[in-house]
């Protein structure tokens, strides 16, 4: 496992270089092509129709922030600050200290009073100093994670409607004041050795385009600090029996109910039957049992506003007469789930209005999966207006019932508006017409082949804009949650974070910044490898029909020419050589950059060994395999595929 450093690593912020456009034109590339063949891949993404809020006004100021190496400002938090608010104060202290060597004092709003001459960092919309200073935070505009920053007199005010929003405000201020940016678990850049600095004048309102994004890589799943810094939403769902997804059997365990209530289950026993086989009395009892189980979890988990009733992870569905009749009438199996969740929601809301339920009342949203059998929305299309509408009112989701749409068979190599994805594109629009709470579950890796790079770069920005325009409130772009991931997955993690926050961010600039700061002196060679990889993907997709879903078969020697793989490995070797100059003067940076480069060697080395074993003599092949295994162990790569341990590969290779 790649070790995380115990202290935050701060690198000098590098200047942004001019960026060559990178593209999705499907031009051919052969293994012997020259460098010029990899240029000018243009990404053409139309402007977004709807946006979050990205109002940023930053100018030079006259107030000393750091003077002769000292800081007079103190951090003020509400007297009743929760743990999340204290984290916001802590993060501000950590990075100001990294920049200037100053440990800022933290006090509460009951210990100080506002004055125009005071030097404060005031945290939290409910901080008493906010109203005393006349700061009006636009709470209704900020949503759950939006950030507000304002400089007034000698002080800075940082707020959100929640403590998480205030934390985001801290990161906004750090970015514009100190050049702070995070690129990975150990790659944080900002100014250092600051001895004199004026406080910048700021007024910033930042509200993400997609309000909540889930962490989908092992890096952030196992490191909540990094996840928070990269703006990934923390715990989001009330769990049921510990499960957030595929939890229908957690509500109604077959071992507890199936013998006596067989109508509650599909005929093959793999799913619930959301019509109870057409028995109204049994259906009422089933809904009440689910409602009562949900109450238990709401009582035990009072801090979350989202919960799911989600089908088991199979492609099957109930084939009883009642379910089949609904499918015949509406053209989808999703109708019974919508009606079921609507009724559970109504009973929960009624409970909230009783003395027993009132202590646990909240703006609860109950969501189900649109997945496999339930994927299609129950809508009709109007060609004249190019709009969708529910088939009838009985299939419209109640205001606080939502859908998690998971188009697992879409191809994310191309945007959702590509002809290949026509069905899924229309379904996003259809579900947006059926419900007010659309959550999206997309896919950005190959779940059968973790070690082979997957191209989702050409679709990412378009898809995020499209989802934002269709009122997506939560996004899980599922990737390699099994610890460490190769194939430039760290770049995807970064782009996921930045583009969900602002779908109109400069895509190419983000990539350029990432390479400069994630690979350091090795960046030019790693960028060369990445650009050629993208050009090769374009060739494969255009000329070899290498296009499909997240289970696409990639292990074909005609897809990955031997000479091309060797060339990419040569780039990586040269990148490692470039880092040697760091080894003596900055061992910490060297280790980080070197491991980042080594991680990206895994994909081409795997393909070379697996597809072209005949290119090695027996001794060299054995040595290559063992060197590869040792590097995987050192890096913490644990899985060959989603549910396949890396040891399975060693068995296949005979090592």
Task: Kindly describe this structure.
The protein is an alpha/beta fold and 655 residues long. Helices cover 39% and strands 14% of the residues. The chain is built from 21 helices and 23 strands. A hairpin with a 5-residue loop joins strand 9 and strand 10 (188-189). Helix 9 (280-300) crosses helix 11, helix 13 packs parallel to helix 14 and helix 14 (489-501) crosses helix 15. The longest helix is centred in the C-terminal third of the chain and has 25 residues, at 587-611. The protein is globular and about 80 Å long. Mean pLDDT is 92; it is low at 1-44.
Task: For the structure shown, list the relevant keywords.
disordered N terminus; seven-stranded parallel sheet; alpha/beta; 655 residues; globular
| Low-pLDDT segments | 1-44
What general outline do the C-alpha atoms trace?
globular
Radius of gyration: 27 Å
Alpha-beta classification: alpha/beta
Instruction: Figure out the total of helices.
Output: 21
- Strand line-up of the largest beta sheet: 2-12-7-8-6-4-5
Percent helix: 25-40%
Number of strands: 23
Q: What is the terminal separation in angstroms? A: 20 Å
Strand residue content? 5-15%
Largest sheet: 7 strands, mixed
Tell me, rounded to a whole number, the average pLDDT.
92
Task: Kindly summarize this structure in a few lines.
Helices cover 39% and strands 14% of the residues. The chain is built from 21 helices and 23 strands.
């Amino acid at each position: 496992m790649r070790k995380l450093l115990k202290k935050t690593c701060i690198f000098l912020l590098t200047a942004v270089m001019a960026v060559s456009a990178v593209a999705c034109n499907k031009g051919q590339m052969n293994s012997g092509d020259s460098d010029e063949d990899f240029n000018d891949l243009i990404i053409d993404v139309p402007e977004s129709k709807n946006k979050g809020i990205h109002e940023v006004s930053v100018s030079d100021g006259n107030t000393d922030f750091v003077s002769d190496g000292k800081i007079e400002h103190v951090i003020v938090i509400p007297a009743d600050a929760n743990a999340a608010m204290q984290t916001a104060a802590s993060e501000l202290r950590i990075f100001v200290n990294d920049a200037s060597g100053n440990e800022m004092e933290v006090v509460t709003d009951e210990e100080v009073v506002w004055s125009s001459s005071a030097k404060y960092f005031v945290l939290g919309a409910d901080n008493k100093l906010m109203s005393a200073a006349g700061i009006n935070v636009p709470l209704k505009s900020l949503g759950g994670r939006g950030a507000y920053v304002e400089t007034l007199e000698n002080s800075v005010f940082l707020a959100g409607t929640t403590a998480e929003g205030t934390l985001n405000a801290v990161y906004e201020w750090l970015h514009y004041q100190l050049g702070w940016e995070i690129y990975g678990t150990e790659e944080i850049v900002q100014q250092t050795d600051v001895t004199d600095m004026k406080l910048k004048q700021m007024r910033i309102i930042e509200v993400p385009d997609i309000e909540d994004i889930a962490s989908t890589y092992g890096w952030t799943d196992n490191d909540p600090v990094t996840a928070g810094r990269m703006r990934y939403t923390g715990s989001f769902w009330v769990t049921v029996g510990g499960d957030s997804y595929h939890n229908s059997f957690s509500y109604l365990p077959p071992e507890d109910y199936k013998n006596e209530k067989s109508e509650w289950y599909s005929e093959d026993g793999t799913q619930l039957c959301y019509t109870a086989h057409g028995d109204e009395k049994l259906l009422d009892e089933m809904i009440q049992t689910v409602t009562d189980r949900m109450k238990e979890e709401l009582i035990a988990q009072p801090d979350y506003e989202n919960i799911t009733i989600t089908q088991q992870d199979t492609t099957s569905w109930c084939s009883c007469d009642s379910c089949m009749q609904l499918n015949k009438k509406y053209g989808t199996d999703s109708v019974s789930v919508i009606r079921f969740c609507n009724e559970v929601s109504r009973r929960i809301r009624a409970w909230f209005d009783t003395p027993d339920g009132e202590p646990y009342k909240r703006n609860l949203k109950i969501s189900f999966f649109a997945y496999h059998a339930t994927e299609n929305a129950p809508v009709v299309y109007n060609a004249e207006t190019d709009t969708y509408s529910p088939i009838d009112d009985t299939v419209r989701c109640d205001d606080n019932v939502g859908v998690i749409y998971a188009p697992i068979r879409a191809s994310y190599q191309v945007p959702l508006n590509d002809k290949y994805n026509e069905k899924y594109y229309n379904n996003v629009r259809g579900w947006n017409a059926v419900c007010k709470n659309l959550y999206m579950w997309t896919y950005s890796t190959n779940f059968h082949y973790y070690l082979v790079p997957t191209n989702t770069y050409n679709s990412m920005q378009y898809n995020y804009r499209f989802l934002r325009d269709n009122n997506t409130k939560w996004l899980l772009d599922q990737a390699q949650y099994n610890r460490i991931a190769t194939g430039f997955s760290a770049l995807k993690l970064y782009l996921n974070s930045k583009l969900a926050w602002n779908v109109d961010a400069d895509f190419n600039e983000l990539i350029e910044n990432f390479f400069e700061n994630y690979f350091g002196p090795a960046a030019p060679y790693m960028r060369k490898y990445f650009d050629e990889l993208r050009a090769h993907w374009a060739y494969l997709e255009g000329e070899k029909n290498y296009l499909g879903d997240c289970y696409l078969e990639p292990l074909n020697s005609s897809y990955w020419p031997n000479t091309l793989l060797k060339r990419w490995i040569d780039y990586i070797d040269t990148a490692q050589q470039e880092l040697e100059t760091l080894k003596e003067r900055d061992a910490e940076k060297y280790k980080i950059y070197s491991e980042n480069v080594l991680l990206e060697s895994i994909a081409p080395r795997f393909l070379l060994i697996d597809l072209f074993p005949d290119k090695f003599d027996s001794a060299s092949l054995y040595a290559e395999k063992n060197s590869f295994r040792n590097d995987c162990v050192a890096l913490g790569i644990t899985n060959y595929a989603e549910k396949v341990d890396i040891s399975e590969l060693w068995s296949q290779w005979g090592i």
